[in-house]
Amino acid sequence: MYEPIRTKSVHTPADHADDFPHRSREEELDIQLAGHLAALLAVTDELDLGEAGDRIAEQVARLRGTPPARHAGRTDAPAPALHRRAHALAGRALVVAASRADTAVAILAAERMDAHTAALAAAPAPTRLVGAH
Question: How far is Cα 9 from Cα 74, in angstroms, rounded to an integer?
Answer without folding.
Answer: 51
